[in-house]
Amino acid sequence: MSNAAATSATTKSDDITFRYATRDDLPAIVALLADDEKGKTREELGDPLPDAYYAAYDAMASQSTDALPNKYLLALQGTDIVGCLQLTLIAGLSRRGQLRAQIEGVRVASTARGQKIGEKLITQSISISKSLGAALIQFTTDKTRKDAHRFYERLGFVASHEGMKMALDPK
Asked: What is the DSSP letter of 34?
């Protein structure tokens, strides 16, 4: 994928099309995030969708550039959004200033699992990251997601670090 193609992210892999999300896609993205054992307890579906999701999308858009995107990458079958992940490229000083890619919120619709959509989504994010000059791609996954760990290891990822989190009270 060329740098110009990485900017728009509209490409095709077999029957799956990839593109970056727009604000109009937020209800479908949140539905995917909630279509998950952990997501059911973390997300809030509603009609209308809570304003916090739109504020977060707008904040991501304000941080995003062509060279350092912070965007949701969508996988579509026809016009149906069947998968998503957040892809953020991060400039930093460690590792001799290497650019790194961060993946978050990987989800495939429960009705579309088993079709290698997740694999295609990860492969597409790797391709985009490489085309933008990233030397490393990383993510975190919950320790209880053993199937996800096997999936990522099959794709060549290595559990090289122990992650830590602290919940903060947003006062």
From this structure: H
